[in-house]
Amino acid sequence: MPNGKDMDTHGMIPQVIDVVKESGLTYEVGPMETVVEGQMDEVLAVIKKAQQVGIDAGAQEVMTNIKIHYRPEGVSIINKQM
To answer: What is the CATH number of the domain that holds 36?
Structure first.
């Protein structure tokens, strides 16, 4: 989320979601968070690109909250919905 003190942040969330969609990774958009499924390096690359949306718009700060769920055998969005 870009710091919106001195800028208009209206419409940035859809731009960030577009970055996630364009990644080709499995994802689910919720009302309070977006879940992205993939290899760690792939997911972190998407996060970096998503932050760039705010930076490119002129934000002096971009805040991102990240939760990572890892299992050696893998975990998927579908598994978490069961």
So the answer is: 3.30.70.930
Three-state SS letters, 1-41: CECCCCCCCCCHHHHHHHHHHHHCCEEEECCCCEEEECCHH
Q: How far apart are CA 43 and CA 47, in angstroms?
A: 6
Domain residues for 49? 12-81
Question: In the chain, how many domains are there?
Answer: 1
4-59 pLDDT, tens digit per residue, is 566 666 678 888 899 999 999 999 998 888 999 999 999 999 999 999 998 888 88
Predicted TM-score of the model (pTM)? 0.81
Does a structural domain hold residue 6? Answer: no
